[in-house]
Amino acid sequence: MNKKSRLSGIKNIGQEGTLVDRIIDYIQTEIAQDRLRANQKIRENQIAKELKISRSPIREALRALERDGLVKLIPGRGAHVVEITPEDACEIFLLRSYFIGLAVRLATPELSGKDIWQYKKWTKELLRAAKQADRQSFLEITSAIEKFFTHHCGSSRLRRFIEMIGNPCLKYRAFLASIPGYMDEVVKFHLGIVKAIERKDASRAESLRRAISENGRRLIHHYFIGYSNTDRKLQALAVVKRFAAIGKCACFRGWNFLRAHQFFCKDF
């Protein structure tokens, strides 16, 4: 997928955004896909050249990402990607499970027939992405669904909380989508949420959405924390090897084990 389509991906699935919003989406995608890595400097000139824009909105986007905990602005040194440990990720996933679950609960009685139709449409696209092992589309669609629920929850403060605690975990969310069977499980949960919303069962919808985040937290703990250093490195590298070998995950094509080790295991 080229840079232009990466920039417009979420916009095409979700709602129109400002230029700053689209720059934020672009930087988030670069981080999730490991093109911008932990502690790496984000070069404004390079982004401006690639997107054919001025540096002013880029600086505004970086300030927003700093508030969200995804980057840090260092005086005299520019913006750098924040490093999140597996322990941090597990804690964030736990908190997110409650926040996003609450958003789904609050949104359920407010959704119109047209809104539910849109959610079901995304769920079908999510199923197609899972069957095709299209990890990038899968992540974009799940992001759009999340924005959909936070938009309809009726609380701008809750929406902001979810955005703030979600951004730092982009690397781990991308990793989860690479685990065999994970995308299929997420699709099953969303199909259940659709049925719960159609019945106006807000409690059930909340429970199922929380289960998605809890499953992600459990897998992060399993692969990164629950084993010895050597064992969990091998677990993470096995996922990379499987997807790189079959060429289904564009993010991992051409990866060698050194790069995979640096991406997944440098926190250990």
Strand content: under 5%
Strand order of the largest sheet: 1-3-2
Unreliable stretches, pLDDT < 50, 5 or more residues? 1-15, 245-268
Distance between the termini: 31 Å
**Could you give a short account of the major beta sheet?**
3 strands, antiparallel
Continuous helix count: 13
Question: Helical amount among residues, as a percent range?
Answer: over 70%
Counted beta strands = 3
- Any idea of the CATH topology of the largest domain? Four Helix Bundle (Hemerythrin (Met), subunit A)
What is the succession of H and E elements?
HHEHHEEHHHHHHHHH
Please tell me the total number of domains. Answer: 2
Short description:
The protein has 268 residues and is mainly alpha-helical. The chain has helices at residues 3-13, 19-32, 44-51, 55-67, 86-107, 113-131, 135-152, 156-166, 170-176, 182-198, 202-225, 229-246, 257-265; strands at 41-42, 71-74, 78-81.
How would you describe this protein?
By secondary structure, the chain is mainly α. It has two domains: 3-81, Orthogonal Bundle (Arc Repressor Mutant, subunit A); 86-226, Up-down Bundle (Four Helix Bundle (Hemerythrin (Met), subunit A)), CATH 1.20.120.530. It has 13 helices and three strands; from the N terminus they run ααβααββααααααααα. It has helices at 3-13, 19-32, 44-51, 55-67, 86-107, 113-131, 135-152, 156-166, 170-176, 182-198, 202-225, 229-246, 257-265; strands at 41-42, 71-74, 78-81. A three-stranded antiparallel β-sheet has the order 1-3-2, covered by helices on one side. α1 (3-13) packs parallel to α7, α6 (113-131) runs antiparallel to α7 (135-152) and α10 (182-198) runs antiparallel to α11. It is globular and about 55 Å long. The model is unreliable at 1-15 and 245-268 (pLDDT under 50).
